[in-house]
Each structure stands twice: as C-alpha cells, then as structure tokens.
Specification:
heterodimer; A: alpha/beta; Rossmann fold; Alpha-Beta Plaits; six-stranded mixed sheet; four-stranded antiparallel sheet; 16 strands; B: mainly alpha; two-stranded antiparallel sheet; 15 helices; elongated
Chain lengths: ~325, ~450
C-alpha cells in the first residue's frame, strides 16, 4: 500500500494557500505535516480527503484516487466537535454507521476504545452506577428499591479533554487503514496526552498509515519517520527525519557545570542559545569545536555535570527553518 | 471524491429523526399538542351545543287557530330527532320548564304561519320550522297528494353545487312557482364558502408544517456547523446526503405533529361521543368543510405536498448553510418565510376569486414550484384544474428539487471553511454556480 500526494495546489482568489505540495508514504508509519498557523496544513488535509476542491494535483492510494470507497479513512479534524445535546453513545454509533460499521461491531469497538481512553463512565453510566452500588454507595445509587437509572451522558456534560477523547475515538471506529490526525493532542493534559499517545503507538504497531499534523514537535518527533514543514503555503523542508537530522550533524551541545563556564564558551567562539545557573544550550559548528571546549574545561578544572552533543531536535529544526524563511522574506 | 451523492441519506435521516424524537423539549410540545387535540371536540361541543337543541323540549303548547290536525305532530317530531314530546293544544302557560309555545294562525296573504315569541332561541325557531313543515305536509295531504309526491316536493337538490361556466343554477321553487334553470356565465361570481373553508384550513395547516420543518432544518444545519462537526461528517457522507437526510427527518417530524393533532382530534371525537352529544359539532364540521378525499384527490394532495415540503426543506438547508452561528439562523428563516407566505396568500386569494382564478392562472398556480403545493390539491379536488397541469407541476417540482439539491451540495461543501457573516441567498447562489465546489 502507498499514499502518493502529488502537486497539490489551492488558491482562494489570488491568494495561494497550498503550493505544489507533494510527498509519498510507501510504507506504514507516521508522516508529519508541520507548519506555522495558516501555513496550509488543514487545507492540504481537506484536499487530500476530498472535502475541498483541488485547483491542481492528485492524491492516490494504491494507485487509485483516494476516496472513502478506495480506502478506509479515519479522520480527526482540527475543527472538531460533537452534538452537544445528543447522547454520546448514539453519536458514536452514528459516526461508525456512516463509515459503514455495523452497530454491533461499532459497540464492541467503542467498548474497547472507551476502556483504553478511560471514558467508560461517560459511555456506560449505568454500569458505572451499578459498580458504585456494589462498592457500598447504596444511598447514592439506589432509588425506589433498585439501581438508579442513569441518563445517557450528553457531550455538553463532558470536560473539553474528555470530549476530545471521544472525538479521537470517532477517528478509529472503522478500524481505518489511513488515519489522519489534525492536532490530536492540542489542549490535553499530560495524563490524557499519554492515553492518546499509547493508542497511537498501538495503531503504528498494527501497521497503519498515519498522517499527523501538530504544533507539539516533541510528540510528532516521537512517532514520525518522515516530515514536511510548510510555511506560508509551500514546503520548506521535506524528507526522512533521521536523514534531515543527520544532515544538520551533531551541532547542539547541552552543557552543565559546577562553575561558570562562560569565559571558556566565549573564548571558543560558540553561540549561546540559552543559559541558566551554569547550564547552557549551545550551538557549535561541529564535533571539533565542541571537543575543544570540553578539553579547555577539563584543563581548567571546571567540574562538568552534563556534556551532551546531539543532533538538533525537530523543534529546533522547525524554528530554524521557518525562522530562516521569515528572515529571507524580510 | 466521487461517491454517490445521496449515499448515507438513510442513516442521516434515521439519526436526525431519532434525536428529534428523543429531545425533551420536543416531547413536551408533542404532549401539549395531544392534550389540545383531545380537548378540542369536548370544547367545541360545549361552545356550539348540539344539532337539535329542541330535543330538550318535553312539552309543546300550541294555540292552533287553523283547521290542521296536530294529532300526528308528536310522532313527526320524534322521527325528526326529538324525544317523546307532549303536544298540548289550547293551553298557553305563563312559564313552563322544558317547554315551548307556538301559535298556528293564518297570515295576511292567507298562508299559515307558525309563530313563536319574539326573541326566541334558535331551538324554538328550529321547532317552529319543524311544525311549519308538518303543517305544510298536512295541507298537501288534504289536497290529495300522496306521501311519495310530498317527499319529492319537499326534498329539492342542494344549491351549493359547482359554480363554473356551463353549470346551471338550481334552486328550490316555491309552491306554485316554476323553477327556472339559468346558465351561469364566466363573469358570474359565486363565492363558495365550503371550498374557501377547506382551502383556508389546508393552507394554514401546510403553512404551519412548512414553518415547523423549515425551522428544524435550519436549526439542524446551523447546529452542525456551530458544533464543528462538518469536517467529521463530510469525510463519511456527501453533502447532498447530509442535507437530504436532515430535510426528510425534519419533514417527517413536522408531519408527526399533525398526525398527533388530527389523530388526537379523531380519538377525542370517538370518545366524546360516548358521553356527550356532539351532533352540533358534527353538523358544524360537515357544513363548514366540504372535503372530497377520493383516492386520486388524496394522491394529488400527498404527492404535491411532499414535493413542496422537500423543496422548502432544501431551500432552508441552503439558507442555513450560509450561517456561521445559531444567532444567524433567524435571518436565514426570512427567505423561506417569505416564500411560504407567498404560497399561502396566493392560494387564499385564488380561492376567494373563485371562477375568476380559473383557466391559465389556475394552471400556472399548479405548476409554479412553491405556489403549487398550496393551490394544486384543492384546485384538483374541486375540478378547477385537471390532472395534466398537476402532473406537469410535479415534473417541474422534481426538476426544481434536483437543481436545488445539486446547488445545496456544492454550497454546503464550499461553506466548510466559511466562518464570516451570514451569507444571503444571492451570494450562496453565486457560490454554488461558481468555481470551487467540491470535486
């Protein structure tokens, strides 16, 4: 299976919003679409999924135009919501039904995902209340001689984070081959972020194709193998993340000492990215310059706690690349 | 994405309808509607009374100054729907409970009059009319007429038949007078109250169902947009199906209201009849509504109304798609309200004009989308138009609906990213006809 996006183009009036975007996923994994706000990520995704007309280009899945008929697609939109006044279970079964999942199968998948994402108490309020009763909280749970009949939960009764977990479930209800997640973790607390990350890891392990758009570089970096960075409608960097990192070389040095190392850093002509209580983030030209600094510190007897020379992180690459573009633009 | 434009309509329809039926507010309003329907017949019967108010009269005092024998009067009254009535000649009491007093005396022209006291009730006047009828029969019998001849003389054809050109006026000739049959010209104007009542009731009912279903569609479309669900839905179902499913569900829901209303009234009529005299209400309904629901007429009514509802529903969907928030939805109603009111007014005026609205104008009313749903069923029911303009009207409606759906599908897709002020219908039309629609 493969996904080929070629020469995708879109403009509104004279304003180009996506310019000649092309990339290929020829194996399962995660492809990251990164970019600043308004760079064209969501528009690209909408065009790929056929929700928005393309002014140019095509999207192929196994050599065929990508449609919901040719590919089982799961989609978590950036603009996402739920029917606020409708019962959650009804909505999930409806969304699954629209994707062609039979009711019983949908129920089984909902149950499994609800357990994983810890939203069972909202989807199965009766079971939850019955459990409370068994735990001895009979005063709360019993009424008129029986277990109180809990009303189905409505979306508006859930916190934003829990709503987001339900929305995430909708993307996976059809057990899709291609999963498109537009900002899947935005606005989630660390606990819920971990729950969703675990599910994403499972989907990757199952051999699914994922396209992920996010501002949270650390999360994307954890999953993705290939990236495209978009800036103001066009791709400014594309390729395999490891290859990109290697092309930058080991130029980031994290240094922590027990004494002030600043004189030695200045003497070596190294750029300081940040400094806090003898802890430094430095940008070096290469291993030779970093080695020179290390040698100087040792010879001067400055105690070193951390010395970590590494490739730049995705965040650093993103900031550098997009920043560069903006400088060029200026 | 090349998918069947309407695949998934059934799923959207079922979900929307079930959610409408589950809504607490909707359940409450349905219960209120049912209570009103159940209360309608008892209330109407209390207000209108019963058909034969004289039936409560147990004694009739008559000052008979004629030679007509009244011996058969008690039986005649009984056969006319009265209970057992005691007829007393000569005695005229000052006051009597459940009694009525009359005088039979020759008038100035020599004809016999049946008189009752000035300011008598409708019941007294009804009884007087029956006594007059009895006296007339007795006079005819005395003149040598047979019962059969008298029946023929006293039962004339109704004179509220059709008023179109080519028909003739039929009226009851008075005794000794020759009945003349005179043709009615196109210029003659004859106001048919029964038909007008039916048109008025039908138009009001349609208008209410239209307003209800249109508001459901707009609310549903706008809620979906405001809840940011469009992206999620559009990846699974085509915009045309999304809209058509909603329109059909809203229509069925609105119709359900009226099934409850009419069913409740029918149930109320059946139950009320068990413990209350509803003959007055029955007479009132029979006299004020002249309905003819033969199978072909019922079919025209149902098909034309369904197509009309569909057209209004899609227009509502289009209008709703131009809104970004629930606050905008009242503005979106205006176009639909305008069209509904136009259809309503035209149908009422056309009926009030009677035969003046015949011919080409009537045919046009049955063919023009939006107008036809209000006018065509009653015009066909009363023979103002034949089946040909009705069928042409259906074809025109179908084309109109198809074009609307195509337009709606394109606009709905285009509006995914739209979050600005409410778009007017002109702008939506422009968008739908222009580039940028979903591929």
């Amino acid at each position: 299976m493969s996904l080929i996006v070629s020469h995708l183009h879109k403009k509104y009036g004279s304003k180009v919003v996506v310019e000649d975007l092309s990339f290929t996923m020829d194996r399962p994994g995660v492809y990251a679409l990164l970019g600043t706000n308004g760079a064209g990520k969501t528009t690209s995704i909408r065009m790929m999924l056929g929700m928005l007309a393309k002014d140019g280009g095509e999207v192929l899945w196994n050599g065929e135009p990508l449609t919901t008929d040719s590919c089982n697609i799961g989609y978590l939109a950036e603009e996402r919501g739920l029917y606020p006044k409708y019962a959650l279970m009804d909505q999930l079964i409806y969304f699954a039904g629209l994707r062609g999942v039979p009711k019983e199968e949908a129920k089984a998948r909902i149950r499994s995902l609800a357990r994983r994402l810890e939203v069972e108490e909202y989807l199965y309020p009766e079971k939850y209340t019955a459990s409370s009763a068994m735990l001895g909280q009979k005063k709360q749970a019993l009424r008129f001689g029986g277990v109180r009949k809990e009303k189905p939960k409505l979306a508006e009764q859930l916190s934003k984070g829990n709503q987001q977990k339900i929305q995430f479930m909708t993307a996976l209800l059809s057990d899709p081959e291609l999963i498109v997640l537009d900002e899947p973790l935005s606005g989630l607390d660390p606990v819920n972020t971990d729950l969703i990350r675990d599910v994403i890891r499972d989907e990757i392990a199952k051999g699914k194709y994922l396209i992920m758009s996010s501002h949270q570089m650390a999360t994307v970096e954890e999953f993705c193998t290939d990236i495209t960075i978009l800036d103001r409608s066009h791709a400014v960097l594309q390729g395999n993340l490891n290859d990109i990192k290697k092309s930058y070389g080991r130029v980031h040095l994290h240094l922590k000492c027990e004494a002030d190392a600043m004189p030695f850093i200045s003497a070596a002509g190294i750029t300081v990215l940040s400094e806090k209580e003898n802890e430094y983030e430095l940008k070096v030209s290469g291993e030779e310059q970093a080695g020179g600094l290390l040698k100087a510190l040792i010879e001067a007897g400055v105690p070193i706690i951390t010395y970590d020379l590494r490739e730049p992180s995705l965040h650093e690459i993103f900031v550098e690349k997009v920043g560069e573009e903006h400088v060029h633009e200026a | 994405m090349k998918r069947n434009t309407f695949a998934g309509t059934g799923k959207v329809f079922r979900f929307t309808l079930v959610q409408l039926l589950k809504s607490k507010a909707n359940i409450r309003s349905m219960i209120i509607m049912l209570i009103l329907a159940l209360a309608s017949i008892p209330l109407l019967s209390l207000i209108r009374g019963n058909a034969g108010e004289t039936s409560s009269v147990s004694t009739i005092y008559i000052d008979n100054q004629s030679s007509v024998s009244l011996t058969g009067l008690p039986k005649y009254l009984e056969e006319s729907g009265y209970g057992s009535v005691d007829v007393k000649e000569g005695e005229m009491p000052e006051k009597a409970k459940d009694a009525a007093a009359f005088r039979i005396a020759p008038g100035e022209d020599g004809r016999l009059n049946v008189e009752t006291a000035a300011g008598s009730s409708a019941g007294d006047l009804g009884t007087a009319s029956l006594i007059a009828s009895y006296v007339y029969r007795q006079q005819l019998l005395a003149a040598g007429f047979t019962e059969k001849q008298i029946d023929t003389l006293t039962s004339s054809p109704d004179h509220w038949a059709d008023t179109r050109s080519g028909y003739v006026k039929i009226y009851e000739p008075a005794p000794g007078e020759n009945g003349e049959l005179s043709p009615i010209s196109d210029e003659d104007f004859s106001f048919d109250q029964g038909r007008y009542n039916v048109q008025l009731g039908f138009s009001v009912l349609l208008m209410m169902v239209c307003i209800l279903s249109v508001s459901f569609v707009i609310r549903s479309v706008v809620e979906e947009k405001a809840s940011k669900l469009v992206d999620l839905l559009m990846v699974s179902v085509e915009p045309g199906a999304l809209l058509l499913g909603k329109v059909l569900a809203s229509l069925v829901y609105a119709l359900l209201y009226y099934v409850i209303l009419l069913g409740g009234a029918a149930l109320s009529r059946a139950v009320t009849g068990l413990f209350m005299d509803i003959s007055g209400t029955n007479d009132f309904l029979a006299n004020t509504l002249r309905l003819d629901l033969a199978p072909d007429k019922l079919a025209v009514l149902l098909i034309t109304s369904f197509l009309g509802f569909l057209a209004f529903g899609i227009l509502a969907g289009l209008s709703g798609a131009g809104c970004a928030s629930l606050e905008d939805s009242s503005g979106a109603m205006s176009l639909c309200m305008f069209l509904i009111m136009a259809g309503y007014m035209v149908s009422i005026f056309a009926t009030a004009l009677g035969s003046a609205a015949g011919g080409g104008m009537a045919n046009a009313f049955c063919i023009i989308p939006v107008l036809s749903m209000f006018s065509a069923p009653t015009m066909y029911m009363y023979g103002t138009v034949g089946i040909v303009p009705i069928v042409i009207g259906w074809a025109v409606q179908l084309v109109f609906i198809f074009l609307l759906l195509r337009l709606a599908a394109r606009v709905y897709a285009n509006l995914i990213i739209y979050k600005g002020k409410r778009l007017g219908f002109g702008r939506i039309l422009q968008m739908g006809l222009g580039k940028g629609a979903r591929s």
